[in-house]
Amino acid sequence: MSKIDFTKEYFSMKESDAIEYAKTVLKFFNEDAVLTCKEIGDGNLNYVFRVVEESTGKSVIIKQAGPEARISSDIKLSTDRNRIESEILKLQYELAPGLVPEVYHYDAVMNCCSMEDLSDHVILRTALLQHRKFPLLAEHITTFMVNTLLLTTDVVMEHKEKKALVKSYINPELCEISEGWVYTFPFSDNEMADAFEKIKPFAKEFLWEDKAFLLETAKLKFEFMSNAQSLIHGDLHSGSLFVKEDSTKIIDPEFAFYGPAGYDIGNVIAHLIFALANAEAVMADGKEKEGYIVWVKESIANVVDMFKDKFNKLWDEKVTERVAKYEGFKEFYLNSILRDTAAVAGLELCRRIIGLAHVKDITTIEDVEKRAAAEKFCLTVGKALIMDRESFLDGKKYLDLIEA
User: CA 117 to CA 111: how far, in whole Å?
Assistant: First the structure.
């Protein structure tokens, strides 16, 4: 019999609680199973427990959302994000089979969900920091994005059904984080901006004092808040992907809501550019570096071009809205997504450099001069993507900018 009643009220679980929860609530293991548990969460918001039966290798992941961020008790959050994540993962599992983990159970009292253990995979950011190549990454991630983004739009869905999803996944607390941390705080010299001291003068002149640039970021913020286009992942960076040679799994859609489709695509591209900047700075010159950089650049271009190709094919197969079949509308619609893609890639490149949420791709560059150069590169590419976003309609355009 359980020593703890998990059905009455929420409390923050410890590793021992997660073991008992796996046995008595999930009934994932036999009552007499000998289990171990480790809290493996390395994000800013949640706690992630891996429970394992060592004798059989059977395992499960339990992810619990608390009422405040683990990085700061001042950041209050709705625990409804765990429901959103659980339901979104189930929906994505249907739309993009094999590309997300399977969800087993959602618990509204304990604000947690249990899901497939992906310990045979590695977090993509970790692998990129080791300069490993994954030939199927672009193929997998573009299939995921096309299926989850296009198939949840008014172009395909019955409109009342789509509006019901908009209502169900409104997600105001997590959207507020994105509105602040991505679109607002990084673009002025304030306590919520955090620029590397060596590039701060550059950031001030190049971004914070450029009124034309700031105007564009304001336009993009309001597009993010008002364009309920697709059911987006909302945080699709290299820390939200598990990979191995023949598999890619997308995790952590707790920021999901109905927003501009280009938001997800732009995030993927930006974090590949971070990987490129890291490799340029820290890898020794030679064939290994050359080969890795070629693969990253190809992946950047392929994300754009494969997405376009798959989008066009899936549109022709799945479009239901009558007016969306008018000649020229598909091209107009896709180009608007590609414009948003470039803008978001630019925002992400900037905000990870001069905002609070940095990336290890850049912060682990030990040589101060090389880190400063990498950061200026990211800010320069980011600004160009924002200011000239209408032009980035294919992968070659991104590579031309990076080369320039």
Answer: 19
Helix (H), strand (E) at residue 313: helix 287-318
Look at residue 5 and tell me if it is in a domain. no
200-219 average pLDDT score = 97
Task: Please tell me the pTM assigned to this model.
Answer: 0.92
Task: Look at the alpha carbons of 49, 53, 54, 57 in this order and tell me if their dihedral is positive or negative.
Answer: negative
Name the domain count of the chain.
Answer: 2
Name the residue among 136, 148, 99, 95 with its Cα closest to residue 306. Answer: 136
> Same domain, yes or no, for 101 and 193?
no
Transcribe 109-173 into DSSP letters: TTTEEEE---TTSEEHHHHHHTT---TTHHHHHHHHHHHHHHTTSTTTS-HHHHHHHHHHT--HH
Retrieve residue 325's tokens: 């079949």
Residue 44 is classified by DSSP as: S
Dihedral of alpha carbons 187, 192, 194, 200, sign: positive
Summarised one tens digit per residue, pLDDT across range 35-62 is 999 998 876 678 899 999 999 999 999 9
The count of other CB atoms within 10 Å of the CB of residue 15 is 15
Please report the DSSP string for 16-33 in residue order.
HHHHHHHHHTS--S-TT-
- pLDDT digit string, tens, across residues 139-151: 999 999 999 999 9
User: In 3D, which of 260, 237, 253 has the Cα closest to residue 338?
Assistant: 260
Answer yes or no: are the C-beta atoms of 318 and 151 closer than 8 Å.
yes
Based on the fold, state whether residues 318 and 217 are members of the same structural domain: yes
Residue 259 lies in a domain: yes
- Final residue before a domain boundary, out of 70, 89, 115: 115
